[in-house]
Amino acid sequence: SGLPESIIAAACARSGQRVLHVDSRNYYGGNWASFSFSGLLSWIKENQQKTDTSDEGEGWRKLILENEEAISLSKKDKTIQHVEDFCYGDQDSAEDVEEAGALSKLPGFGASAAEGIAQESEKESPPGEMKSPPGEMESPPLEKAPGTEPASAREGNDTEMSSENGSSPGTASGESTLVLGKTEAAPSEVTAKAPKPIAYSQIVREGRRFNIDLVSKLLYSRGLLIELLIKSNVSRYAEFKNATRILAFREGKVEQVPCSRADVFNSRQLTMVEKRMLMKFLTFCLDYEQHPDEYQGYENSTFAQYLRTQKLTPSLQHFILHSIAMVSETDSSTLEGLQATKKFLQCLGRYGNTPFLFPLYGQGEIPQCFCRMCAVFGGIYCLRHPVQCLVVDRESGRCKAIVDHFGQRISANYFIVEDSYLSESTCTNVCYRQISRAVLITDQSVLNTDSEQQVSILTVPPVDLGKPAVCVIELCSSTMTCMKDTYLVHLTCPSTKTAREDLEPVVQKLFNLNTEKETENEELEKPRVLWAVYFNMRDSSGVEKNSYSGLPSNVYVCSGPDSALGNDCAVKQAETIFQDMFPTEDFCPAPPNPEDIIYDEDEIAPEESEFSNSAEAKADSSAEESGSGGGAAVKKEDNED
Predict the structure, then answer these.
(1) Which CATH number fits domain 3-50+60-77+361-430+542-581: 1.10.260.40, 3.30.1330.40, 3.50.50.60, 3.40.50.450?
(2) Distance between alpha carbon 248 and the CA centroid of its chain, in Å?
(3) Nearest to 86 by CA among 576, 515, 421, 452
(4) Which helix (H) or strand (E) holds 89?
(5) What 3-state class would DSSP assign to 288?
(6) CB neighbourhood size of 591 (10 A)
(7) How does pLDDT run across 21-43, given as a tens digit for each residue?
(8) Which helix (H) or strand (E) holds 504?
(9) pLDDT tier at 112 (50, 70, 90 boundaries)?
(10) What is the pLDDT of residues 83-110, one digit of tens each?
(11) What is the CATH number of domain 229-242+256-356?
(12) Bias category Acidic residues: which stretches (predicted)?
């Protein structure tokens, strides 16, 4: 139930298809999930032990007929490797400490977009949306094992602001809206001057305050995912917070990068000449396609080499390359750098002063939002439901069914499988990349300012040419991903070694890992790491379908998370697969408004006569009639876009 699969499930259900969405895990999101602190500890233990799931017997093979063959699926997820966790805080006894507010068994707690998703298909469906017939499309209970669920319990959401027309700088007239959480810090969070050292037991006790993402990403304000959230109206299931600042690491120091026009002219770190240079170059990047003579002859050069020819100072070159374009110094061409810079600039001002948004409660909320949309339109969700094999018809070569771990044979027309479910025999010719990940809990920000509630993105350039840069995303407590007085820091880069070998040198540059009380003055200025985990994650993006051996034409493979900052790869993949299955259907259209539903008079006449004395009952009757899908059509206004 990762992001691409969840988007496809929502699109299929919205187009009227019957969808069964199963996951062998006991939580939503796969490698896109978010965990509470205790849930992450359970996930770490599970991946460190690497116990193979024993085959429960070959009884399911009796369901395979003579003219059929089975493609066995993997029983163990092998996408996570080299998991190492460390506690740097005060390691007082935390053996008997439990998470406060253990509400995992109550509906609505745990995964805010997924807990009780069967109930949501009834509660959230407005009049005019399709509902499942009673007893036909009901989901099984979705209770989660304590300590393993993505914990994103809703709290403190009564204050919010909406990015409506005119409410955010640069928002185009008539655009749809996203709900943005407030960026101001609560008074209680800024008055503490000398907080006490945070003990490990306190982190465990406040574990449900954490929503720790396995994959670290931000949403470009004009990226494909934001456009899809708005188009499909799935954005109503989530809230977002602006990334408040772009940082750079240069000459051993962290500094803020001016990226908007106001930031550039208010910057004290740039001279007046540098401000003019920067504005002139950024203005050119916005419409570089109209001036090919400016970069003619540099198409085959790297972007870094091109910047050196533009009479930019070294500091400006560093800011543009690593903090605005955010491309590789050695591998990215001039056109790739110009395109990335233009994308950055186009996203400025739509919802805030930076191009990025972050979903409150973590990136793991986004797949769950699309799962909710699928459930609203009749999709069935089953967690803890492994699948033994795909059943292929030898004559047609198409997949006919699956056999699950209960020995049930379930038929379908199309099958979408996440890469990690495929066995080694199917992936013999596949060459995977790896992503190095680290998650830190720290006691202060990498760059302290007057406001403690900052969401920051920082790119740390490599020391050695040819090595990848490290993307650092720092989240404050107002993102609902960590407890008060702490910060959650995500580090990501393409792997060259193990995650710890790739990322620990960067961690040592930015943070203090010394557990002793007496440290040098230089170390005291750095934020202190309280806890950390390193792991490598498989990057299966970019693998062509023909690389997999023996897959039928109606079986589609979704990749896991990629190393890019945005989510464009997942959205493109989902749309490509959906359009291949249903080329005439619209991809994730918005649900119809209740007032746009026209009912067949013959269908609703008996209802009107029966409930003529009750307007409220009549309205309920109409809603039920529309939910069954009978005799309903969506009217189109003459002035509709």
Answers:
(1) 3.50.50.60
(2) 24
(3) 515
(4) none
(5) helix
(6) 20
(7) 999 999 999 999 999 999 999 99
(8) helix 499-510
(9) very low
(10) 999 998 666 655 556 666 554 433 333 3
(11) 1.10.405.10
(12) 597-610
